[in-house]
Design a protein that fits this description.
It is a single chain. The chain is of the alpha+beta class. 38% of the residues are buried.
Length: 165
């Protein structure tokens, strides 16, 4: 299902006969090209299953999906930093045993700093974090702790170091 450029798409797996390198077939029903969130989930799943020989390396895509203004990751280029995409990208790096790129955790924490009450904002309202968001707080928490999915039934978490990486 991986697109040739090393990422995965939310709405449909790669179809070589109709899709471009970013998994878009160009139709109005193909809402999104490949995105950071789906790519991060795929990386975590493959790493957990110890099947991490990707068809194409997904990490150059993560590097290209950084928001130059706020330093986090975007769902797709042009969307701006959001807590969920930033958290998932961080988790993908952790799952693969790679160093989190400089400023990545700070970008995630910045969405918490001005919100108060310990919650995270989903994204920015202009130059300041938006309102507290339950989904963003749930999504950001494992990344700050450097915990990846899947969470294990024992209450523990899957980490790249659990496999001796």
């Amino acid at each position: 299902a991986q697109c040739p450029v090393g990422r995965w798409s939310y709405d449909a797996p790669y179809a070589p006969g109709t899709d471009d390198d970013s998994c878009s077939d160009g139709s109005k029903d193909d809402f999104f090209t490949a995105d950071t969130n789906t790519t991060a989930y795929a990386v975590m799943a493959l790493e957990h299953a110890e099947r991490d020989a990707y068809g194409s390396n997904p990490f150059p895509f993560f590097a290209s999906a950084r928001d130059a203004t706020h330093g986090g990751w975007e769902y797709a280029p042009g969307f701006g930093t959001d807590a969920n995409s930033t958290a998932l990208a961080i988790q993908a790096y952790v799952a693969a045993g790679r160093a989190i790129p400089s400023g990545g955790l700070a970008a995630l924490r910045a969405l918490q700093a001005d919100v108060g009450c310990g919650a995270w904002a989903y994204n920015y309202d202009g130059e300041t974090p938006g309102a507290p968001d339950v989904g963003a707080t749930i999504g950001a928490s494992p990344a700050v702790l450097r915990v990846t999915f899947p969470l294990l039934p024992s209450g523990g978490a899957a980490r790249a170091t659990d496999r001796g990486c």
